[in-house]
Design a protein that fits this description.
Layout: H1 6-32, H2 38-70, H3 72-93, H4 99-106, H5 109-121, H6 127-144, H7 159-177, H8 186-210, H9 219-247, H10 249-254, H11 258-271, H12 277-295
Helix pairs in contact: 1-9, 1-11, 2-3, 2-8, 2-9, 3-7, 3-8, 4-6, 4-7, 5-7, 6-11, 6-12, 8-9, 11-12
Length: about 300
């Protein structure tokens, strides 16, 4: 039977909101082209996010400082990998490969999470969960191929695809790594990982600037930086961590497949791209896959 506990319902809400915000992040990234360079934008978003979380979490950080200090390396690596390295690889991959390839490859993240949890923790995965994953993957593939699945057979891997696959493994590793999260208040956890992300983004932005590719944001660029600093960088990350805490990384990881679906829908509403029947079918497939995987998860 489906878990009807209030905490589980809260996790679903957290993860759906996270996927929606991350879908908006993809739209914001498209809108930022020509208004700010990617690595500098990444650094600025984490400077702002770190400053904001410090403002609201100072007393909590002081209380949790002994735990933060003992787990400093773990927290830095989580922020550097999950927040900065993933985005750096994604931005770099899109210089070499198509958005279709990147979306399809990102849809494989829940499967990698399943495999990692099985190999490392021997977590059991049911046939129903695998079927649910495959259903969501079909929805993503339908969207990525613009409703014509035959176009997928013409895709070829290149250097960008390899970068994107590495990016997917990095974020899957981050998700699985949340299992080792120390007993920290969410404010302290977010502050520590945001600090790690900010520090890790410094050399990337410096490299970009020294190579003449750096571009300071203009007015529109700053508006986009503010949005991604507050919502995708801060609010959504907090919700994702809480969702993983409640239902685990296997179940939470499946919701990541909603990101490209929401990205398409937001592109229609914000950028004015047309809505097609296959968009609706894709959303139904992804949502149906999540429900199937939830109903068939291993008994606790």
């Amino acid at each position: 039977m489906t878990d009807l506990k209030p905490a589980t319902g809260k996790a679903y809400l957290f993860l759906l909101t996270t996927a929606l915000i991350w879908g908006g992040n993809a739209v914001a990234g498209k809108m930022a082209v020509g208004h700010a360079s990617p690595f500098l934008m990444t650094l600025l978003r984490w400077i702002i996010a770190f400053a904001l979380i410090l403002i609201i979490s100072g007393p909590q950080i002081r209380r949790d400082w002994p735990v933060i200090r003992r787990n400093g390396l773990y927290l830095f690596l989580m922020g550097a990998a999950g927040f900065t390295l993933f985005n750096a690889l994604l931005y770099s991959a899109l210089h070499y490969t198509s958005a279709i390839n990147a979306v399809i490859e990102q849809a494989g993240m829940p499967f990698i999470i399943f495999v990692a949890n099985f190999l490392i923790f021997r977590m059991r995965v049911t046939g129903g969960q695998v079927a649910g994953f495959m259903l969501t993957l079909c929805g993503i593939a339908l969207t990525a191929s613009n409703g014509d699945l035959s176009t997928l057979f013409g895709l070829k891997l290149n250097f960008g695809d390899l970068l994107m696959l590495f990016a997917v493994m990095v974020y899957a590793g981050y998700t699985v790594g949340l299992r080792f999260k120390p007993e920290l208040h969410w404010k302290s956890m977010m502050a520590a990982t945001a600090c790690g992300a900010m520090v890790a983004a410094l050399p990337l932005a410096a490299y970009e600037w020294m190579n003449g590719a750096g571009q300071m944001p203009d007015a529109k660029g700053w508006a986009i930086v503010a949005f991604i600093a507050i919502f995708p960088s801060l609010f959504a990350q907090i919700l994702f961590v809480r969702g993983v805490e409640i239902i685990g990384s296997n179940r939470a990881g499946l919701f990541i497949n909603l990101v490209p679906i929401f990205g398409v829908l937001l592109s229609i509403g914000v950028i004015g791209e047309p809505l097609h029947l296959y968009h609706v079918i894709s959303l139904v497939l992804v949502m149906g896959g999540i429900v199937m995987a939830e109903r068939n998860r291993p008994a606790a």
